[in-house]
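Expect chain and fold; see below:
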Amino acid sequence: MHNIARELNDQIRAENPHVYELLSDLGRNLYYPKGILTQTDEATEKAYRFNATIGMATEKGQPMFLPVIQETLSQYNPQDIYTYAPPAGKAKIRAVWREKLLKDNPSLQGKTMSQPIVTNALTHGLSIAADLFLNPQDVLVLPDKLWGNYTMIFGTRRNAEMRNFTFFTEKDEFNTQGMKEALLAQKAQGKAVLLLNFPNNPTGYTPVEKEAQAIVEALLEVAEQGINVAVIVDDAYFGLFYEDSIKESLFGRLANIHPRILAVKVDGPTKEEYVWGFRIGFITFGDASSVVCDVLENKTKAIIRSTISNASHPAQTFVLHALASPDFEKQKEEKYKIMEGRALKVKEILNRGDYQELWDYYPFNSGYFMCLKLKGVKAEELRLHLLHNYGVGVIALGESDIRVAFSCVEEEDLEELFKLIYQGAKDLA
């Protein structure tokens, strides 16, 4: 183990040994090297005559660029799009995103967390968390209603053992008891990683207030039983809360609540600001010790430096420009209303009872999606039948679930969409 990594681990152990125990073998060996980038930073600050350190071409005091590219980006300073961004991201966008987190999540007020670290969108952020906290055969606890790529990120890449609990109870409430039991089953190991995704993909569900309180209480009980828990909060669809759901991230309620609970927030503008192709996200750590947060940032930078080096500088600049615009909040609210309108329209259509002979639906109150529970029809057969005979695309999940993304269907077309799904199901029933 490198001496720097050993020093970082000693700092974590001194501040919060439970977080050290949560780290994977890779996580313990990670450190951000004092190499070329550090020397470059020093030269940028002090080399007032010539700076011959960085692997980048310059011309007349600016980054070198092709006019054929710059003409499409003329609103931006070349310095803000062509240069390398720091491994942890532009300092300004990290600070602005932190301010946004505090504004959007009242429960974070007065709590200690790291500065958000820029990732190559949320998949990369989740992968970083997997590298930091999961050894082969370590247990990842998560609901059975999940985004399929979790299996690749945590299971295939890190060889973690994925333990699912049933998402909904028979009363169609979030299954907090099932979550708690799955975590308590790890008492002999003394460690577990929990993954929570709200608004949930695929169901479109976010807990209501009493469920959110129950989740926090259950995790405190698990911690009191001597189990260290890293809670990864996947907030990909944050902000798209409709009806009765809580209106903030569970990260705010979980950060700093117990020495054995480390809260990890993975989020970004990908879905929040409708910039899927920009591939910009953030990972943020919530621990009562600022030293622990700093060390985890250092180790995260090591992962970034050793994989992608840094995230897209232009994309960070574009997002920062949008966040600073006086029109940002108004425009975002307009898009939110469109999404909310679609979700409520879907619920109105389904609540009429016209289709209940062929399906029920899981509760949904947020996000991009909702899921149908088919009766007497297999999901994959229906998916293919709809695609080939009606020109309708949906996602089949398991034996009987169909995911419908109302996010990409105009509100006025939703009526026809569900009529076609119903007709297809009736063909096969």
Summary: The longest strand covers residues 191-197.
